[in-house]
Amino acid sequence: MKTFLAIFVLALTTSAILARQLDRCSLAREFSFRTDAVGNNPDGSTSNGIFQLNDLYWCQPSNGKFSHNKCGSSCEELRQDDITKSLRCAQKILGEQGWSAWSSGNSCNASPPSIDNCF
Questions:
Q1: Would you say 81 and 35 are in contact if contact means Cβ atoms under 8 Å apart?
Q2: Does residue 27 lie in a domain region?
Q3: Distance between CA atoms of 58 and 75, rounded to whole angstroms?
Q4: Could you read off the pLDDT tens digit of each residue along the chain, which spans 119 residues?
Q5: Judging by beta carbons within 10 Å of its beta carbon (0-12, 13-18, 19+), is residue 4 exposed, middle or buried?
Q6: Beta strands at 53-54 and 46-48: parallel, antiparallel or unpaired
Q7: How many domains are there within the chain?
Q8: Residue 28 is part of which domain span?
Q9: Which residues pair with 53 in a beta bridge?
């Protein structure tokens, strides 16, 4: 659960910056509804789903542009309410590259707070 929450936090920080503050439970509830998130990156790539997985490396975009597609999924699959494929892909990325695969990953030095009492 701690890894899952940490990836959530990274997903938020790699997407558009929000002009509001959320406590840990509000943040956890917010993530519950953003499985379809798409972030547009300066290099023209997109970050997809709840874990903001980049289409240049991890999923195949529907427009047919080149992708390494290391997770073997379409980007649409990573934006579904069923986050099984997204979670497996995020775990693969974490295993291969660690937190540095996400642009804010180097700032994670501690365990994230528990969200067990938020739901």
A1: yes
A2: yes
A3: 8
A4: 455 555 655 555 544 444 577 787 887 777 667 899 999 999 999 999 989 999 999 999 999 999 999 999 999 999 999 999 999 999 999 999 988 888 755 555 666 677 788 87
A5: middle
A6: antiparallel
A7: 1
A8: 2-107
A9: 48
